[in-house]
Design brief:
Blueprint lengths: L1 H30 L3 E8 L6 E11 L9 E7 L7 E10 L2 E8 L3 E11 L2 E11 L1
Antiparallel strand pairs: 1-2, 2-5, 3-4, 3-6, 4-5, 6-7
Bound molecules: copper (II) ion (CU).
């Protein structure tokens, strides 16, 4: 009797540990919003052809993140293998831009990588091309 109680306590403990481990991820993700990216385009709305994509990048306090390395890739998920990538150039404090040429209308997935010192941040934003 005593033995079976011991075993069930062990099983319970391992279930709790597992639950804690998986619950930690969402908490971390919501508090780790260390970077905010606002995407705008020129022209706006963006259409097939040449588009300048502008990113305004700020930290958790709303201060511009200056001097970061900002890499951008664009994918057209509706058509496998269609995509482009490049480095955005800082225009002024915290504002970065890159020129792209969109071949097809539809929803494109823009992935932005912001790297600076210890910061390594990635965000995906959908962009509608008309
Ligand atoms: Cu396409």
């Amino acid at each position: 009797m005593r033995k079976s109680i011991f075993i069930s306590v062990l099983v319970l403990t391992s279930i709790l540990l597992t639950a804690c481990g998986s619950a930690a991820a969402p908490t971390e993700a919501s508090s780790a919003k260390s970077v905010n990216i606002v995407l705008s385009t020129n022209p706006n709305p963006a259409a097939v052809g040449d588009v300048e994509i502008v990113f305004t990048i700020t930290d958790a306090d709303g201060k511009p993140i200056e001097g970061a390395k900002v890499d951008v890739s664009a994918e057209h998920p509706a058509m496998a293998g269609m995509g482009m990538s490049g480095a955005a150039v800082e225009q002024s404090g915290g504002v970065y831009s890159i020129k792209a040429n969109f071949s097809d209308p539809g929803t494109w997935k823009i992935t932005i990588y912001v790297r600076k010192d210890g910061l390594d941040y990635k965000e995906e934003i959908e962009l509608e091309i008309q």
